[in-house]
Amino acid sequence: MESAKSFGLTGFKYTRHVIIPAIVPALISGATLAWCDGWFFMIAAEYVEYMGSTYSVPGLGSYLAKAAYVYNDLNLSIILLVLITGIVLYLNFLTWHRLMERASAGTYKPTIRIGLSGVGKLGTVGSRFLHLGDHIHRPKSLILASKWLKRYTRLEKAIAIALSLVAVFSIIYFIAGRIPSVEVFQQAFADTEFANLPLYTALTLGRLAVAYVISLGIALGMGVLAAEHKRFAAIFYPIYDIGQAVPILALFPIFYIAFSRVFGGTLGLEVTAIVVLVLDMIWYMFLNVVSAVKNIPSEIKEVGHLFGLKRLKRITHLVIPAILPAIVTGSILSWGTGWNTIIFAEYMPYGKPTIYPNPAVINQTYAAVGQNFTVSIDVFDVVSLHSWQTSVIFDAHVLQCNMVSEGEFLSSIGTTLWNSGQINNTSGYIGPINSTLLKNGLGANGSGHLAYIYFTKIAPVDSEINLEETKMLDATEDIIPSSKVYSLPGLGSYLDKTGYLPPPKGNPVRLIFLLGVVATIVLLMEGLVWRRLLRKFEKYRVEV
User: Fold this and answer.
1) What total number of domains does the chain contain?
2) Which pTM does this prediction carry?
3) What's the DSSP call for residue 248?
4) Closest CA to 412 of 454, 445, 382, 390
């Protein structure tokens, strides 16, 4: 930096010739993690169940999700995972690994002080903080925020708070489609599960803590070995590429089946959730540990050698103290990605949908042009079905609907109120189709046909038939999920149900509140735990 000032580099030139070259290794490392995270969450992005309906876009993620959750096809799931693994390894070798090698060759070295983290920093370590005296350390951002707030009067602050509330209500309006009424607010906090929120929060934090401790232990072992031994690096780096990038969420049902055989149903589900969390959290820690161990100053290593530090003593007395800041940084990243994954770890749909069209694809073998055929809306392995509703979407250029009639599943056990919906052969829409048992407390169990739809094929191409706006209620008027789910009590599963299920379980006001709870927990841990540890460990200096 001093050299840059001597050469008169300021503004954009300073950024272009000093800042950007200095952060290239960190930039490429972050880009690698972001790229791999995209592959990890590919299923969640391309295959979503919302308000009782399934939405998907064509892609490897949605195809893998269907293979794992809908078709229950283990062989197809493994083939797709192997294909994705090959793509990831090839792209990582072709791009990210080569970029990292080139960037490492020109990495900046410390010019003023060397922190024990070994991270190549320019200038004084810990310059983000204002040091007032020897023991008082306040974040610079907190001091600046305090000064900034003093500029405004109480009236201006009240107006700012009011505008913030308006922004929150605007978000709720965007989600709900209208300004929530008093009843919506009452429903948000009248849910029977809401009283369990403290317990759910404690359970979720417990799972995250267990997964974090396991991730930390494994990452330390793998990271130190990979950084100091080329043979282990040749083994662990491909494992890192695969583990960080492959959508492990697709293996959730397989993990559960395996662990449930060993630990039983409930405990097996707990173990499965923790394993999924570990497989997501470990890699941020691993990458930070490897980078920090590689950059431990040679002087420190020589002093350790002179004092005869070997094996475990060397790790506990030299390596771990030297990389403590990197461990804290990796912990922050791992804990953050754990919150992203906890929803899927605690609440995961699987298996054949509870309600679905049969067949879902009309091909040339099933029906020729001009031929009439029937598609049934079926229900699978349902318990106490009292009422249901759905809408049918089809390609109007390929199919034309003639009529909709009621199936025998509900009508066979009691009198029903049946509505065949409206048929629109221009837009390819039928709905809403619904049926309700008139006798309260009555419900049907098992599998069967809910409705029959009569079509005529008018074009020689294949066509899909999809259901939307699906909703099912049992005899107690509780929602029946449109697919089977693995669910654990916790903040993640409660957040998932509040956001994705239809009302009354789904509620936009409660969703905003739960997101606020998560944000509060994250900020508290950031301020009370991670930043304090980071400030403490950044005091370490090398004196040789």
Assistant:
1) 3
2) 0.67
3) G
4) 445
Give the whole-angstrom CA distance, residue 466 versus residue 57. 13
pLDDT in tens, 136-186: 344 444 455 555 555 556 666 666 677 776 676 666 656 555 555 666 677
Structure tokens at 217: 């232990």
The per-residue DSSP string of 157-196 comes to: HHHHHHHHHHHHHHHHHHHHSS---HHHHHHHHH-GGGGG
User: CA 480, CA 158: separation in Å to the nearest integer?
Assistant: 44
- Contact criterion met (CB below 8 Å) for 306 and 349: no
Task: Measure the CA–CA gap between 542 and 229, rounded to whole angstroms.
Answer: 24
Written as six digits, the tokens of 216 are 């930390």
Q: How many CB atoms lie within 10 A of CB 434?
A: 19
CA separation for the pair 179, 177 (Å, rounded): 7
Q: Which residue range(s) make up the domain with 72?
A: 2-109
Side-chain-side CA neighbours of residue 195 (13 Å): 3
Report phi then psi at 233, rounded to 5. -60, -40
| pLDDT tens readout for residues 255-300 | 877 888 888 777 888 998 999 899 888 988 888 888 888 877 777 7
Q: Which of 74, 109, 144 is the last residue of a domain?
A: 109
Asked, for residue 36, whether it belongs to a domain, the answer is: yes
Same domain assignment for residues 329 and 383 = no
Rounded to whole angstroms, how far apart are CA atoms 117 and 289? 9
Among 450, 267, 284, CA closest to 375:
450
CA 427 to CA 378: how far, in whole Å?
23
Distance in angstroms (rounded) separating the CA atoms of residues 497 and 484? 13
409: domain CATH number?
Answer: 2.60.40.680
Q: Three-state secondary structure along 463-482?
A: EECEEEEEEEEECCCCECCC
